[in-house]
Write a sequence for this structure.
């Protein structure tokens, strides 16, 4: 799975996710990536793309959950990502990347690693795989 | 005016024994795509165009399992899926079951921009792709030697492989994880879906 979340200088957030799914998946299986609210979501607060165990991400409506944490609980982006990954996935394994309308980046995962990279206008940049 | 920001991923659940050179290769691809996205944002390209551009770049690199080098179903076929959402207007588009579209994310974008729908799948999505004139490629573009080898491993292990890529050199690491999942070792808890060992899902 690959994905991107971005916010531009006009505070417009967007997200996209693309995948082949799981190796040896049953033909016809739909994962979380194309499901808006599960693997991908964007609104005025944030943009989110997920990766990992699709069935768990679908049950958790994980991408939308991050946005809801910000909208209804007033959490900051990283807090929303952390809470969603820790509290909403049950026994599932997944990773999340996100940006906020304020120009923040955040990520979280409960797998052993996640291929990821992020950058902000104020000079923060990171490329990583492991915790 | 706000500040731009960008985050990208290439999948979670990375093989813990991924060789250092493959880790460096992954980082190189990620860095290249990140810089492309950042340059576009600096040039005031709208966020929705940036995410499409970056995901297209990631889809075109066989290191990750979308687009070129896509994973295979139990039938040995490619079924790709993608979505895109523009948060400003809360518009979205999604596609599933693609087997010939070179860049699924761009077809998702066309569903959002050029169709009255949010989600098209399988034959309907392929037909829409041809109507829209998106780039179509032979199935062999997606099916690489590596993912054929991965499917063989998955079938031998009687499991679904989680979202990581295993290098050609050192594929024994994949086999060990898959076998562990079946034998109920600690790795088994890693390989679960809907609360059940992932091995029960394949073959159906």
């Amino acid at each position: 799975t690959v994905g991107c979340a971005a916010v531009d200088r006009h505070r417009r957030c967007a997200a996209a996710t693309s995948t082949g799914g799981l190796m040896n998946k049953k033909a016809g299986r739909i994962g979380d990536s194309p499901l808006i609210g599960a693997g991908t979501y964007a609104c005025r607060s944030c943009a989110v793309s997920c990766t990992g165990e699709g069935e768990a991400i679908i049950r958790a409506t994980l991408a939308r959950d991050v946005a809801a944490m910000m909208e209804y609980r007033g959490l900051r982006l990283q807090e929303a990502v952390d809470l969603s990954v820790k509290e909403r996935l049950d026994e599932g394994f997944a990773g999340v990347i996100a940006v906020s309308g304020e120009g923040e980046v955040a990520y979280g995962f409960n797998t052993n690693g996640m291929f990821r990279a992020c950058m902000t206008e104020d000079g923060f940049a990171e490329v990583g795989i492991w915790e | 005016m706000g500040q731009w920001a960008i985050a990208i991923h290439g999948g979670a659940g990375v093989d813990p024994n991924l060789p250092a050179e493959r880790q460096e290769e992954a980082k190189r691809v990620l860095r290249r795509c990140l810089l492309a996205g950042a340059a576009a944002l600096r040039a005031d390209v709208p966020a929705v165009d940036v995410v499409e551009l970056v995901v297209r770049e990631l889809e075109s690199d066989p290191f990750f399992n979308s687009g070129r080098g896509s994973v295979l179903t139990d039938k040995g076929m490619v079924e790709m899926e993608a979505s895109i959402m523009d948060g400003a207007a809360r518009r979205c588009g999604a596609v599933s079951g693609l087997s010939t579209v070179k860049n699924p994310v761009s077809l998702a974008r066309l569903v959002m921009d050029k169709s009255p729908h949010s989600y098209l799948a399988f034959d309907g999505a392929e037909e829409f792709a041809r109507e829209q004139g998106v780039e179509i490629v032979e199935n062999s573009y997606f099916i690489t030697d590596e993912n054929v080898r991965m499917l063989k491993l998955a079938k031998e292990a009687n499991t679904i492989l989680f979202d990581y890529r295993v290098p050609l050199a050192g594929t024994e690491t994949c086999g060990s994880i898959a076998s562990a999942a079946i034998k109920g070792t600690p790795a088994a808890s890693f390989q679960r879906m809907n609360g059940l060992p992932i091995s029960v899902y394949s073959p159906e």
In short: The longest strand of chain A covers residues 113-120. The helical segments of chain A are 54-60, 62-73, 77-87. The beta strands of chain A are 2-7, 13-19, 40-42, 46-52, 94-100, 105-109, 113-120, 125-130.
